[in-house]
Write a structure and sequence with these properties.
- The chain has helices at about 20-30, 90-100, 120-140, 155-160, 180-185, 205-215; strands at about 5, 15-20, 35-40, 45-55, 60-70, 80-85, 105-110, 150, 155, 165-170, 195-200, 220.
- Strand 4 (about 45-55) and strand 5 (about 60-70) form a beta hairpin.
- The protein has six helices and twelve strands.
- Helix 2 packs parallel to helix 3 (about 120-140).
Amino acid sequence: MPRFFIFKDLNIGEHTGISGEEAHHIARVLRYKKGDIISISDGKNIEYTGLILDIDIKGPIIEIEIIDKKNADPIRPYITLYCGLPKGEKFEWILQKNTEIGVSEFVPMITERTVANIMPSKSEFKLARWSKIVQEAAKQCMRINIPEVREICDFDTALSKTSDCQLTIIPWENERETSLKDVLKYKGRDASKVAVFIGPEGGFSEKEIEKAVAIGATPVSFKFLGF
């Protein structure tokens, strides 16, 4: 059953309306009808079951009654992907695919070797577009929660955000000894929050790797990632 998002705190027996793109998809694409049951999420960790009471095609506006409500188990570990912005539209693909595999948070970064250039005047538009992409990806893969997409930051700021992570991983082409498998085996078993750093097309500089190691990050070899 498809899942739709309503960003409200609702209770069993409460009536609410769905409008906009979600209502269009329910009424005109999926052709749901009065009396049908739909699955709804608040975009975080609550799943609702709704009964369609009425469909106003002109809006369209879907009136529903909440008939069930339950808390979903959060995705563990909580993974934050710190991604050096790549060129073109590659970041949108990264958002989509990593939403599908369970990443909880995305932080786009400007690093020493970042080529992509997003004008400050366009950053708000980009953030809104990226947030929409992860919402659609979450819907497609039936996730209860929608990942957060944070504002673009520089590498040093990104590092400062990892203080509450039990494990921080940074793949690096010059790392020859430490494998991702070993890091996950010996350090990742009890980690509830994990940070993963991915560089842009040119990778990370040695200076950036040194900074990452200084705050406790573990470089891992590419040869153990299938590259």
